[in-house]
Amino acid sequence: MSNKIVVIYSGGMDSYTMLMNYRAAGRDVHAVLFNYGQRHLKELEYAMKVAEGLGIPHKVVNMSKMGWELLGGSSQTDKSIPVPEGHYEDETMRLTVVPNRNMIMLSMAIGYAVSIGAGTVAYGAHSGDHAIYPDCRREFVDAMNAVAQIANYQPVKIEAPFQDLSKGEIAEIGKDLGLDYSKAWTCYNGRAKPCGKCGACQERIEAMEYAGIEDPLEYE
């Protein structure tokens, strides 16, 4: 199997850890970044800085028009919908679900993998996502992997290496790798500082505490 791997890289804590973990393992990492019309581009800016700084080959896919026109009903693509505050277990966090996002991104990443001869596509779904995001659950990953085996002449494997890990356990991997989490943005808001109140911030704070890491980002 090819040592090349395409990593869907958002710039958040999970995908940053995944990217760096594959890199540390000696994989030939190629990153693909998506502008799907999300509420802000701060995560994407963080991702670009990391990829450029490390010389990681990367592509930025602009689907912003698709996001605004087709992927509605989410606080992440519709600025008229306020970002909910609270924990990921709260029902209100369903407002952060972007319809079919991961299927669209994986489909494009699979095409990119075929074009560069990569045998694997990876994304950063983890166990904390399962309750809210259907496209992070094992049955979705397995189904997409099955499709990726037959969709092209070249089969591609779909990996979600953090599928069964909590965000705290992901933070522990980052700690072992010596990662600088000031290079990862997690907040659903794109202000100067992370809000500390949205589900993404709360989960990051809990993960840092679990792993015994002092968060380098200053919160509002």
Question: What would your notes on this structure say?
Answer:
With 220 residues, the chain is α/β, with parallel strands linked by helices. The chain has a single domain (4-166), classed as Rossmann fold, CATH 3.40.50. It has seven helices and five strands; from the N terminus they run E-H-E-H-E-H-H-E-H-E-H-H. It has helices spanning 13-24, 42-54, 64-70, 101-116, 138-150, 167-177, 199-211; strands spanning 4-8, 28-35, 58-62, 120-122, 157-159. The chain has a five-stranded parallel sheet, with helices on both faces. Helix 5 links the parallel strand 4 (120-122) and strand 5 (157-159). It starts with a strand and ends in a 9-residue tail after the last helix. The model has no long low-confidence stretch (mean pLDDT 87).
Short description:
With 220 residues, this protein is an alpha/beta fold.
Largest sheet, order of strands side by side?
3-2-1-4-5
CATH class: Alpha Beta
What count of domains describes the coordinates? 1
Briefly note the structural class of the backbone: alpha/beta
For the biggest sheet, the summary is: 5 strands, parallel
- Report the portion of residues in β strands: 5-15%
Average pLDDT value? 87
The coarse silhouette is globular
C-alpha-based Rg, rounded: 16 Å
Total count of strands: 5
Q: Indicate the percent of residues in helices.
A: 25-40%
CATH architecture: 3-Layer(aba) Sandwich
Cα-to-Cα separation, first versus last residue: 46 Å
Order of helices and strands, N to C? EHEHEHHEHEHH
Low-confidence stretches: none
CATH superfamily membership: HUPs
What is the fold-level CATH name, i.e. the topology? Rossmann fold
The number of helices is 7
